[in-house]
Design goal:
acyltransferase activity, transferring groups other than amino-acyl groups; Acyl_CoA_acyltransferase; Acetyltransferase; acyltransferase; 13-stranded mixed sheet; 2 domains; alpha+beta
Length: 287
């Protein structure tokens, strides 16, 4: 069972990944199902996916598994894309693929992410001593883009907003996958809006374009002292207005019942339930 990063047919691997992504029971939750979107998302990783890609093969050379990794040294965390493995090869190939790829990342915390229906991923995590974290509920809403003008209190975030955005961000999302500095980086992947009522920033929303017709809300929070005043809804509306896209998607942790009720009240439907898995300690994996 060779594990290799050499002489790889990248198009064949992409085809394999796309096929695996079609079912929640075999997909990596970091990616969608559309072939072009998957290709674009892999190209957008911080480290070139073709350089971190490792595959497993059968004795006859047939592709049986693939895995990719991305990391952020500032956050000291990596994200494992996959592993994607043929049904009957998880026990034999899974631990080796996972151990090989995480050894590439110069960080101490690694994460995998899959639908709760992906039993093989859950069993691999258990086998390798990874922690099963809280499930995430994915929500989606498709609605016409509001025709009214952007609320005057909402504007793009600037570098001067960093202290306030950082305070809100770290209080609401401690240890998450993106820092406040990244959210405010104009050359980065996120667009961030703040609501400033004249006395300071009361909330923010950070989002990305998703596919050809959607927007993904990565983070949204409102100052606890300013909640129940419609600020969250205004920020969601503003993200939709700024992108001109009708479909909005977001993810909520299972222990945030209040947030789930809030989005459901705004017409969002739950479309999936996913779970992250975290490594126990730096670059450790079980056979």
């Amino acid at each position: 069972m060779p594990i290799t990063s050499r002489a790889i047919d990248h198009q064949a691997v992409l085809d394999f990944i796309v096929e695996q992504q079609q079912s929640p029971a075999t997909a990596c939750a970091y990616l969608g199902t559309d072939a072009e979107s998957i290709k674009d998302d892999l190209k957008g990783l911080d480290q070139p996916w073709t350089e971190t890609l490792h595959i497993s093969t059968a004795e006859d050379g047939r592709l049986t598994g693939a895995v990719v990794i991305e990391w952020d040294e500032e956050l000291a965390r990596s994200w494992v894309y996959g592993p994607w493995i043929e049904q009957d090869a998880w026990v034999a190939h899974g631990p080796a693929l996972l151990g090989t790829v995480t050894s590439l990342a110069p960080v101490g915390d690694h994460e995998m992410y899959a639908d709760v229906a992906h039993r093989e991923m859950a069993e691999l995590a258990t086998r390798c001593g990874w922690r099963h974290r809280e499930a995430n509920f994915e929500y989606s809403r498709t609605a016409p883009v509001p025709a009214n003008e952007l609320d005057l209190q909402i504007r793009p975030a600037t570098a001067e907003d960093l202290p306030r955005v950082r305070a809100l961000h770290e209080a609401e999302f401690p240890g998450t996958y993106a820092s406040a500095v990244e959210l405010l980086d104009r050359a980065g992947r996120y667009s961030t809006l703040v609501l400033d009522d004249g006395d300071g920033v009361r909330g923010y929303v950070a989002y990305q374009h998703q596919g050809r017709d959607g927007v993904y809300l990565d983070f949204i929070t409102v100052d606890p002292t300013a909640r129940r005043a419609g600020i969250g809804e205004l920020l969601i509306t503003a993200a939709q207005q700024c992108t001109g896209r009708q479909r909005i998607e977001l993810t909520v942790d299972e222990n945030r019942a209040g947030a789930r009720a809030f989005y459901e009240a705004l017409g969002f439907d739950q479309v999936a339930a996913t779970r992250p898995y975290r490594s126990p300690r730096p670059n450790m994996w079980a056979h």
